[in-house]
TrEMBL record:
Domain HTH gntR-type: 24-94
Keywords: DNA-binding, Transcription, Transcription regulation
SMART domains: FCD (SM00895), HTH_GNTR (SM00345)
Native organism: Streptomyces nitrosporeus
Gene3D superfamilies linked to this entry: GntR ligand-binding domain-like (1.20.120.530), Winged helix-like DNA-binding domain superfamily/Winged helix DNA-binding domain (1.10.10.10)
This protein's name: FadR family transcriptional regulator
Entry annotated with the keyword Transcription: yes
Phosphoprotein found in the keyword field: no
Any one Gene Ontology molecular-function term assigned to this protein's record: DNA binding
Taxonomy, superkingdom: Bacteria
C-alpha cells in the first residue's frame, strides 16, 4: 500500500491543496477539500490519508467535524476506515470504467469542456509568468526541481499523480493563493477526464520535454517563454482529449 508520505514534499507539505477552512460551513468546506485531494489523485487508491490529528490541524477543524467528513466519504464509497496498528482512512479504488471512450464522453458531457480547458490555460500560463517574474530563491527552486524529477522517475501507473503534483507545485510557487485554489479545482475536473484516456509513452515523453522547458524558463526568469511553454502544454492536453472524444 502507498502512504501519503510517499508523495514528494512540496509547498504546503505533502498535500498542498489543503488549507484552513475560511469560516461559514466548516464541515462542508473541509469535505470539499478532502474530496479534491482524492479527485486529484494525490493519494492513490490504497493510499492512506494523513492521521486525523494532522488532517484536522491542516483544515483548522475539530476532530469531531473531521470524523463527520470522513463518514460522508465512507458513505460515498470513496474511503474506508481500518483499525489496528496499521489502521487509518484509506482511499478506495474507483470502479472500473465501462469503456474509456464511452465514459469519457459521459464525463465530458457533464461539464463545459471549452470553459474548463480555457480556464486551465489562463491559470497555468498566468502562474508560469508569475513564477518567472520573481526570484523563487533556493528553497522554491529546489521544490520545483524535485517535483520535476519525481515525474521523470515515476513508474507509468503513478505518473499522473506526480504530474499533478508538479503543476500544483508550480502554481503554489506563484505566490497567489486564490489562483492556486482555483487551479486545484479545475485540475481535478481535467484529471477526471484524463483518467479515461490511456497513458501512452509518446505522450508522456512530449509532456516531460515540456515540463523541463517550463522549469528552465521559470528559473531563467523568462516570463514570455514560460507562458508560451505552458500554453503549448495545455494545448497538448486539449488535443489529446478532443482526439479521444472523436
Amino acid at each position: 500500500m502507498t502512504d501519503v508520505t510517499g508523495v514528494p514534499p512540496g509547498p504546503g507539505g505533502p498535500l498542498p491543496v489543503l488549507r484552513p477552512v475560511r469560516g461559514g460551513n466548516g464541515s462542508e468546506e473541509a469535505l470539499e477539500q478532502v474530496l479534491q485531494v482524492i479527485r486529484l489523485g494525490l493519494v492513490p487508491a490504497g493510499g492512506r490519508l494523513p492521521p486525523e490529528r494532522e488532517l484536522a490541524g491542516r483544515l483548522g477543524v475539530s476532530r469531531v467535524t473531521l470524523r463527520e467528513v470522513l463518514k460522508v466519504l465512507q458513505d460515498r464509497g470513496l474511503v474506508e476506515a481500518r483499525r489496528g496498528r496499521h489502521g487509518g482512512t484509506f482511499v478506495l479504488p474507483r470502479p472500473g470504467l465501462p469503456g474509456g471512450g464511452e465514459e469519457l464522453r459521459r464525463r465530458a458531457g457533464a461539464v463545459d469542456l471549452q470553459d474548463v480547458l480555457r480556464f486551465r490555460e489562463v491559470l497555468e500560463t498566468g502562474a508560469a509568468g508569475l513564477c518567472a517574474a520573481q526570484d523563487l530563491g533556493g528553497e522554491g527552486a529546489d521544490r520545483l526541481r524535485a517535483a520535476l524529477a519525481a515525474t521523470h522517475e515515476a513508474p507509468l501507473p503513478d505518473y499522473r499523480r506526480h504530474d499533478t503534483f508538479f503543476h500544483l507545485t508550480l502554481v503554489r510557487l506563484s505566490g497567489c493563493p486564490s489562483l492556486a485554489d482555483r487551479y486545484a479545482a479545475v485540475r481535478a475536473t481535467v484529471n477526471d477526464l484524463l483518467e479515461c484516456v490511456p497513458l501512452l509513452v509518446r505522450n508522456l515523453e512530449r509532456s516531460q520535454h515540456q515540463h523541463t522547458a517550463l522549469v528552465d524558463a521559470v528559473l531563467a526568469g523568462d516570463g514570455a517563454a514560460a507562458r508560451a511553454v505552458a500554453a503549448g502544454h495545455c494545448a497538448g492536453t486539449e488535443a489529446l482529449l478532443r482526439d479521444s472524444l472523436a
